[in-house]
Write a structure and sequence with these properties.
Blueprint: E1 4-7, H1 13-30, H2 45-53, E2 57-64, E3 67-77, E4 90-98, H3 107-121, E5 126-129, H4 136-144
Parallel strand pairs: 4-5
Antiparallel strand pairs: 1-2, 2-3, 3-4
Helix pairs in contact: 1-2
Amino acid sequence: MLTKIRRATQRDHDAICLLAEEINVQHHAHSPHVFAAPPGIERDAEFWRTAIDDTEGMLLLSMIDHRVVGLLRAKILLPSETSFLRTRQVCHVGTVVVTASMQGQGIGKQLLDAIEQWAKMMAAEEIRLEVFEANDKAIGFYDAAGFGVQSRIMTKTLLTS
């Protein structure tokens, strides 16, 4: 399904918060020890307001008939100053979400393609994202989009609530 991809504006704020709540519910259900329970869209309203205005990042929306059906938030990371790492620009994808009723129709791929073009314009050499190890659906999606494992983030829980 072909959708219109465009940059988010503050007029989109409420629709973005509603869509982001879908991923919040999924994340919390999957990993409640990591993600806070979603109390509703109010908690993250300021986060999304700031993301929309971020001049160093990009918040793309996928639109069908003036309705937000997907979003992707990305930012160009500053080159590392670590002496043993090669200095390069990296585009970090922080959030990708497609409304549940529209998943599997190519919307996420269109968003990734659009952010890849933006990343190239910004002279990024790589796009990087994180996905939970048990999220097989997302891992399959990213594999099909050409992403591969570069490193692994490992954790050890010390305190339980």
